[in-house]
Specification:
Blueprint (H helix, E strand, L loop, with lengths): L8 H10 L15 E6 L11 H5 L15 H9 L8 E5 L8 E6 L28 H4 L6 H11 L8 E6 L2 H12 L4 H24 L5 E5 L8 H4 L3 H25 L6 E4 L1 H10 L55 H18 L3
Parallel strand pairs: 1-4, 4-5, 5-6
Antiparallel strand pairs: 2-3
Helix pairs in contact: 1-11, 3-11, 5-7, 6-7, 6-9, 7-9
Length: 358
């Protein structure tokens, strides 16, 4: 079984146990020619690193400037592949509020299709200007995952070669959107049905547009434990109780439907980000985490920061007393720090090792 270093044998043992162990009775690992990723902000390697965002030292939803930062960048390093780059960049913001309109631009040879705010099929995702409010200022593109996949196929002759590693991680923004609708009066059962539909649509896209088009190594990542993020845990009183319950219900519904519709197979490896993230918050010491409740980034800086997001976070605008090298789990209220990304990259790599893919 292949091993890799991460500074602490204790930490490595924890991640190994979390992935269900491993053994020597695994098939010979494939030689991967490239890495392709589809999804949302958790896999976005720079879709919005243009215009004002770039000038502010941002571009990824984490602490920027400490590359490699995103978990997909870290896996590419381990595979011996070139650093992933965003397949499409752009912003549709409001110049009157300090953000330039940057027309969508495709980048040949780049296979990081994930975009912050993206949902599974609905083009109006979190941060899209059509959702109103501060989102009009920034204007994230939020190209949905099904379109991301189609864009890849269009640019690559309609198929995968079969020796790529393909990452798919989506669903969190569908959960956020439905949670907002429930908060506005939508029946909870309708929110559950909507996220289940999104999960089924994602599973169908993987089967018909990725595997059926030639991909042999597809890693599908479920939705992390949103109820354990500062977005929820920093609430108080009834709001904390109600939001925790709602998020748990919606995330569980999405993840269960996705696993039911897309179980592990010869071509599919499901990775349980939900359990991994939940355990990191519950047992931070095991992962050398020093803070799992606060945000490493000062979400009011730099100005403008219309979304209060780590998209424009870097070493110059961290929370007072925090250093880039500190082992905070969260950069902002939902996105991990580079250290948090490194933990998840190891979790994915170990799962791939157990399957014989790494």
């Amino acid at each position: 079984m292949r091993q890799f270093k991460f500074g602490s044998t204790v930490l490595m043992a924890v991640i190994l146990a979390g992935c269900g162990g491993g053994g020597s009775d695994v098939p010979a690992k494939p030689k991967l020619s490239s890495q392709v990723s589809f999804g949302d902000s958790l896999s976005d390697v720079g879709s919005y690193k243009v215009g004002t965002v770039a000038l502010l030292g941002g571009g990824q939803f984490t602490i920027n400037g400490t590359a490699p930062e995103n978990w997909t960048e870290l896996t590419a390093v381990k595979f011996g592949l070139a650093a992933p780059c965003a397949a499409m960049t752009g912003l549709d913001g409001d110049p009157l509020q300090g953000f330039s309109v940057m027309p969508p631009t495709t980048h040949a040879g780049c296979t990081g299709y994930a975009q912050g705010g993206a949902r599974v099929t609905n083009p109006v995702g979190v941060g899209n200007k059509l959702t109103g409010g501060a989102n009009v200022t920034l204007g994230m593109l939020t190209i949905p995952v099904v379109t991301q996949i189609q864009n890849f196929l269009t640019g690559n002759g309609g198929s995968f070669k079969g020796d790529e590693i393909v990452f798919v991680m989506a669903g969190a923004n569908d959960v956020f959107m439905q949670a907002a609708l429930v908060g506005g009066g939508l029946a909870p059962a309708s929110g559950v049905a909507a996220v289940q539909t999104a999960a089924s649509e994602l599973a169908a896209a993987v089967k018909t547009q990725i595997i059926a088009k030639g991909a042999k190594y597809v890693v599908v990542v479920n939705v992390p434990d949103i109820a354990s993020t500062p977005q929820v845990t920093l609430l108080t009183g009834a709001a904390l109780t109600q939001t925790t319950s709602l998020m748990n219900t919606l995330v569980s519904a999405f993840n269960a439907q996705l696993k039911a519709d897309l179980p592990d197979s010869a071509n599919v490896l499901n990775v349980d980000a939900y359990s991994a993230s939940k355990d990191e918050v519950a047992n931070p010491g095991k992962y050398n985490l020093t803070n799992v409740t606060g945000t490493a980034c000062n979400l009011t800086q730099p100005s403008p920061n219309p979304l209060g997001s780590s998209l424009v976070c870097n070493a110059t605008n961290l929370t007072t007393g925090v250093l880039s090298a500190d082992h905070y789990l969260f950069a902002d209220k939902v996105h991990p720090t580079p250290y948090g990304h490194s933990l998840f990259s190891l979790y994915v790599l170990q799962a791939m090792t157990n399957k014989g893919w790494y």
